[in-house]
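Posting for a labmate who doesn't have an account.
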Amino acid sequence: MKITKQKVNGRLDPFAFLRATARICVRKIWEGGGMRRLQQGVNEKKKVSICFLILLFAIIKIWFQEDIVMAADKTSHCSRHDIEWSVVFGPDSDKILLRHRCIGADENAKESDYSWAIYEISQNRITDFKELNTATKYQFKYHPAFSRDGKLITFVSGQDDHRNIFVMNADGKNVRQLTHDYNERPQRISEKLITMIFNEMPSFSPDEQRILYVKSASRRTKPIYYTDPMYPSRWDIYEVNIKTGKEHKLTNYGFFGITQPAYLSDGKRFIFSVPTVPPDQTDSGIDVRTWWEYADKYGLNNIFIMDGKNNNLKPAFKNGSNSSEPQIAWNDTIIFKSNINEIDGLRKHGTQYYDLFMNKNGKTKRIFNKQLTLGSNSHAISPDGKRILIKGVRPVIYNLDGTKMIEIKIPWVKLEKNLKNEK
């Protein structure tokens, strides 16, 4: 069994060596003879055992991390880069914004370790998004969104005890704060709740005059279970006028949580979804009876389209027993996640499988026809409605029909070199 030593800049690249060894193991096992062929190929039981150990380790390192593990390089102090939950398409549908951190010897993530970068799909190029990374003095900067003309960016910034909505020019100039909630004097609402106002998940209206976002009203005073993080709750949807800063409340339900809301193309209606957790287990403003009547009638189809006036608690469409997390393109094409256990005749209890679906012109179509275990906020649709991004350990771009377009392999070392040269 011959394995060529893989080198980078004159040094042994352990991951390239691992990949080469694993490929030989797989080829020997599967090329017609299985274990017997493998033993004939090496003639040494000890090498066989070593080969299988390497293969096992390779599955862990390659299958899950091949595209983010960096080769041993003299210029790199990172063993890998983690891409966090927030991945956003730019207005040209070719750029994506991603929040990442370099992982070196210390595996424990601190907020200061994260930064934003812009990745260009067509050029396979990544650059530091320093305009966002340095936009405010606050620790947190997340949930960015571009205006349709690409001239403005809205985002959330703040500290542990406050989060507010900001807007700035795409070049980082003219940073303005639009909401001003700091929770300096929390008020007791009840024995279990105190006020906690966070502003999150902003997005622009089609006319670029308003920003849609969600605002919380409270949080618990005591955890209801040991690991309860006591996140803010009782969320509703608001909009703010960019010029005047005037806020307008659009819903009045006090949801336990809300996924990112977005305007439809008419600039009046907006789409969002809410968690499937019953209100008797949360701090929702919806009474338990109303919730269970809804669940009996519609299942857990919790995607809503409202306009601030006609806000009936009725799903925009039904798809199986569960649909959530809508993402919308500028032409009103909607992609969303649905549980498919019932649709595919699988067990209702046990492992829950999902697939992505598309709703266009009122018609729903399944995209992948696979049984996936999609995580939360793991998908996005491009503004032009032609691309889908699945954000996992390996970000992948698909066409709208589910065919694979490109598997993103981000050149992290180049980004590190550029950042080092700028210092």
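Reply:
Got it, the structure tokens are right above this. Helices lie at 14-30, 34-42, 45-63, 130-133, 288-298, 412-422.
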